[in-house]
Every structure is written in structure tokens, then in C-alpha cells.
Backbone:
């Protein structure tokens, strides 16, 4: 069995302190140091611009900081260090809201990075974001300062562990063009690779995002102050063709392509090496899931890597136009994916959009065949019901939108039936997306899909990049609800 480790930390370098949010990876070369010290948010000298509450279980100590919902309503800790140097800090928090909560991370009065606290699928679901900062000798203030009117998430504690100075970034990689955006190419064979990027610059401020291969978003744009360099490590899947397995939309170039964009992309180092037995999350699905080569179409699988830290990797075998039967039979799809599956890998199976005339028995048979073959390889199947189309009757979605097909088959219900019979977890993306789309209503929900005025196309089935991101959020919510093995690797 793979170890259940979380690799969600970052490395800072240069003269300025660095602090970043979930999803970054601390180098294993950073030396261990003295024992960890915990500072509770409810205990002086910590301060909370809000109330100390106890109404959600699972917190540390005697309570947690429930900050006021306004910009600047901060949680602040006073941390004592016996000498100046680097320290690893872990912030315990819960964010049960529907959105991330952005904040400035301020150390001794200096804003070192703008970041955000990811959602945790419930106010009782506590997690940590771990980072490295530079501390002075004596007392230091570490302030979490919200930059939106939603305020902070609930803040539980701050853990501090003193450590050695981390190594410097390796410098500009020869595989990257000096351009904006910065485009890098590595001649590697298909497989899984650990990619480490040092983002930021010693002399100038930056704003940098990171994408790989066929528009797969890895890191949303992060801002770095001048002198701040943060180290990010991810596991990346390389395939050929790099987008859809049947080559729809283009096949891309052999090897690994990495793009650093944003308003002012900054890169101080980049390394690529073979990954050591990562947890692989295979995606078997249709055009709403796949890696779309051509903008503006975006599958939710393209945005799922933004949730996954190093040690786990998303391998997206989704393909446009596929039904449960065609995916099972096409030699480039399930028959190609199946031999790659290793023990404990996760295989997410989502079909329905193109099963418009599939009978209930055939649909169940196709799903059952995939499940049994995945288990034969030692993998763990996960069923995902299809996301809704945007077809309204008044303020409610039609049966067609909810995937009741032309033969009257309620496909999500049949998928639940298979999951129950075969003891397979089912992420109900149909119900989750229905709730989201209906809550937005006929007009506002258009932003989730392709719009003529924004995208050049009107499409009530396929997602915009924003909509694909929201669907990926819902899938990750389901991962947490079922406590799948991927939970240990979520940012």
C-alpha cells in the first residue's frame, strides 16, 4: 500500500520571506529540526478579529477563530524563535463555504504572498496548509489577512517547526524559452514525472500560472513579491497523443510541454524526473471530462490537477463523443488504459451524455464490465454520474438535462444501482451540478457553459474553463465525502 502522506508545502529563498497556500511541496532535503510548537488561535497572545467558537467538532484546543466576514478581519499569531532562520508553519483551518477564501500572508509586517484557502467540504472538515517562512530572533507576528468580504476560513492553530536554510533554486532551465509566456519542452517518453518549479524572481515581482500539455491547469496564477521564490512540486502524466486518446482536436507534440503564464511570469528553476510509483487517478469519460486541445472547450478533468499535490497524478483518458459502450470497445480507450492500471490506482468512470439511446440493461452491463476489469488489475473503480446539461423548464432542469434518455432510462439512477450492487462508491455529480445550476438560475448558470458573446459558441452541454473548474470542485467534494485514497493528496 502507498503511504498516506500529504505533500502540501513550499520552499522560500532569497532575502524576502515566502508563504504560500495549499498545493505547494516542501523539498525533502529540508532538514528536520526541533520539535513542533503549536499556537492555538483562541489563546493569547493570538488575536482574532471575530469570535472564538466551538460549534464545529474536530478542532484542536478549546475553540477556533471565526473571523468577521470583511476585508482585513485577521487572525494573528505571535511566535517566538530563539534565533533567526527558516521555520515550517502549518495553518489548521476549515472552509465549509462554496468558494476559496483569498488572503495575504504577512510576516513581521511584510506581505510575502497573496494566496487563498481552499474549500474543505464542510466546517467540521479540518485540514492544514504548510509553508516555510523566515523568522527573526525573538517575537515574530504572522498575520492571516483576508482580502475579500467573505473573510477568512475558520482558523484553528498555527504549528511552528524551526529548520535549516533551504537550498537555492537551480537557475534558468535550458529547456525553456525566455519569453512571455514562458514555454518549456522536455523530450521524455510517455509516463509519469515529478516536476519541480521555482516560481518568482530575486529582483522583481511576478504573477505566474502553470499549465502542462493540452491546457491542463496545474497552478492558478500566484503573485510573488520581489525577492520571493516559491518551490512547487507536482506529478504530471505524459501521454501521446497528449489530449484526447483518439486525437480529436490535435495530437500535440511528443514529450512534456510546460507553460508559465500570468500577467508577469517569473521562473527561477525547473526540473523534471521520473516519478516513483504515484497514485494514478484514471479518468474514463466523454467530452465533459476530457483534456480538450482547443479553447474554449474545457473538460473538468483538465482542471482537476489544480486540486492534486505531488505523489498523485491525473491521467485523463476521456474522449469526446464516447458512450459507455464505445469507450469499452475502442482499442484506443479502455483497452489501452486497462494494462496501465496498478494496484490501488483509482479509476473514475463517467458516462451518460452519449448514452442517449442505450437501454438500461446495456448501460449497466457496460459499467459492470469496466468495474470488473478494473478490479482484475487491482484498481479501485469509482462511478461518477454525468453532470447536467443546461436545459430549463421555468426555474428547474428538464429530465433530458438530468440524463433521462430517449428510452426513458434514468441513467444516473442506473449508475447508482450498479454502484450499490457491486459496492462501488458513486460520486453524484448529476445531483451536485443540478443543485449548482438551478441555484444560479437560467441566466447566471450560462457562465458555466459556452456563451456566444464570450466564447464564440453557444453550448449548453460543454463547459467554459470557469464551469469546468466548478465541476472539478464538485468531484473533489465527492472524493472527500467518500474518503477515497486521493484525499491524502488533495491540496
Residues:
Amino acid at each position: 500500500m502507498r503511504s498516506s502522506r500529504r505533500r502540501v508545502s513550499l520552499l522560500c529563498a532569497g532575502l524576502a520571506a515566502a508563504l504560500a497556500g495549499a498545493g505547494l511541496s516542501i523539498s525533502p532535503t529540508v532538514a528536520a529540526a526541533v520539535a513542533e510548537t503549536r499556537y492555538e488561535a483562541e489563546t493569547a497572545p493570538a488575536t482574532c478579529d471575530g469570535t472564538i467558537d466551538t460549534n464545529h467538532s474536530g478542532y484542536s484546543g478549546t475553540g477556533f477563530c471565526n473571523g468577521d466576514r470583511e476585508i482585513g478581519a485577521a487572525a494573528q499569531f505571535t511566535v517566538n524563535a530563539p534565533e533567526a532562520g527558516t521555520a515550517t508553519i502549518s495553518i489548521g483551518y476549515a472552509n465549509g463555504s462554496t468558494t476559496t477564501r483569498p488572503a495575504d500572508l504577512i510576516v513581521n509586517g511584510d506581505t510575502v504572498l497573496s494566496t487563498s484557502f481552499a474549500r474543505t467540504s464542510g466546517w467540521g472538515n479540518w485540514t492544514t496548509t504548510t509553508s516555510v517562512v523566515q523568522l527573526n530572533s525573538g517575537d515574530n507576528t504572522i498575520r492571516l489577512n483576508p482580502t475579500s468580504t467573505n473573510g477568512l476560513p475558520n482558523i484553528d492553530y498555527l504549528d511552528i517547526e524551526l529548520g535549516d536554510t533551504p537550498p537555492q533554486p537551480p537557475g534558468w532551465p535550458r529547456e525553456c524559452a525566455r519569453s512571455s509566456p514562458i514555454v518549456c519542452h522536455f523530450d521524455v517518453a510517455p509516463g509519469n514525472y515529478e516536476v519541480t518549479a521555482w516560481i518568482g524572481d530575486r529582483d522583481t515581482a511576478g504573477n505566474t500560472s502553470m499549465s502542462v500539455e493540452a491546457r491542463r491547469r496545474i497552478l492558478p496564477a500566484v503573485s510573488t513579491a520581489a525577492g520571493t521564490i516559491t518551490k512547487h512540486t507536482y506529478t504530471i502524466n505524459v501521454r501521446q497523443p497528449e489530449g484526447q486518446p483518439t486525437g480529436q482536436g490535435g495530437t500535440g507534440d511528443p514529450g512534456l510541454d510546460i507553460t508559465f503564464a500570468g500577467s508577469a511570469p517569473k521562473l527561477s528553476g525547473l526540473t523534471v524526473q521520473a516519478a516513483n510509483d504515484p497514485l494514478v487517478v484514471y479518468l474514463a469519460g466523454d467530452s465533459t471530462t476530457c483534456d480538450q486541445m482547443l479553447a474554449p472547450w474545457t473538460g473538468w478533468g483538465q482542471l482537476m490537477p489544480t486540486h492534486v499535490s505531488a505523489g498523485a497524478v491525473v491521467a485523463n483518458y476521456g474522449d469526446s463523443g464516447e458512450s459507455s459502450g464505445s469507450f469499452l470497445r475502442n482499442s484506443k480507450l479502455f483497452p489501452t488504459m486497462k494494462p496501465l492500471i496498478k494496484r490501488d490506482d483509482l479509476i473514475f468512470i463517467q458516462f451518460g451524455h452519449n448514452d442517449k439511446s442505450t437501454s438500461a440493461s446495456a448501460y449497466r452491463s457496460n459499467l459492470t464490465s469496466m468495474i470488473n476489469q478494473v478490479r482484475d488489475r487491482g484498481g479501485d473503480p469509482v462511478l461518477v454520474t454525468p453532470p447536467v446539461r443546461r436545459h430549463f423548464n421555468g426555474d428547474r432542469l428538464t429530465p433530458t438535462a438530468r440524463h433521462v434518455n430517449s428510452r426513458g432510462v434514468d441513467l444516473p439512477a442506473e449508475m447508482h444501482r450498479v454502484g450499490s450492487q457491486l459496492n462501488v462508491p458513486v460520486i453524484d455529480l448529476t445531483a451536485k451540478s443540478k443543485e449548482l445550476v438551478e441555484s444560479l438560475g437560467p441566466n447566471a448558470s450560462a457562465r458555466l457553459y459556452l456563451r456566444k458573446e464570450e466564447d464564440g459558441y453557444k453550448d449548453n452541454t460543454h463547459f467554459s474553463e470557469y464551469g469546468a473548474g466548478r465541476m472539478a470542485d464538485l468531484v473533489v467534494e465527492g472524493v472527500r465525502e467518500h474518503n477515497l485514497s486521493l484525499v491524502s493528496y488533495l491540496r
